[in-house]
Amino acid sequence: MGVPAAAAPPASGGGSDAEGRQVTEAALFEAFGGVRGMVETVLPGLLFVAIFTVNKDLHVSAIAALAVSLVLCAVRLVRRDTVKHAFSGVFGVAFGVVFAMMTGNAKDFYLPGMLYTLGLALAYLITTLAGVPLIGLILGPVFKENLSWRTRNPGRKKAYAKASWAWGLILLAKCMVLFPLYWWADTTQLGWVLVALKIPPFLLAVYLTWLFLVKAPAPIDVFAEMEAREKAEQAEQERPAAGAAVADRSQEGPRHRR
What is the pTM of this model? Predict the structure, then answer.
């Protein structure tokens, strides 16, 4: 997907609320893939369950899902768009296909993705408890603040912690719905519920993240700070040379007068 690059956040404080909202929206759009990223996430699974609902053929359903995922990735490569979301989709579908083929159980197509969701939910919760919320590690580079929020921006660290709690609990609730269905429902029931739960929880988590971050202090642009320090050091180094040149010119004046 052609994802617009996030605008450079203000160094610290300053800037209007409207600018802060635009920066946050752009950064979230870049980090999570936007509309096209959501389509690429949903389409392979939707195609799998739709085909399996009609003909109950695991092989045809799995190959179709993998093929559409590869096509989406190839389109990104041809257009020279960001491919990280497409590649993650290809790997996820490929794991599901291999797992389902190995076990012969069509429901196992969904199991790697469900385990990944559970692991991600736990990662959000555990990193937040450890004082290093995962959403901050993900979005810090996008906002050009890296890990400065950990020690220099406590209000922003608190916002990242709230967002990580939201992501963790939302994904955990999703798992609480899906895993019982994996054991007790058939493949088509599980597949359609999983497709239905792809977008709404994701949008809720992104919205809550946006809500927490637009109310937080502005990110500290560590790259701008580094550039400013480098310019100051360069100016400091050039100052003695400039002073020496002025001194030389002042000494040449009397000599010419003689």
Answer: 0.77
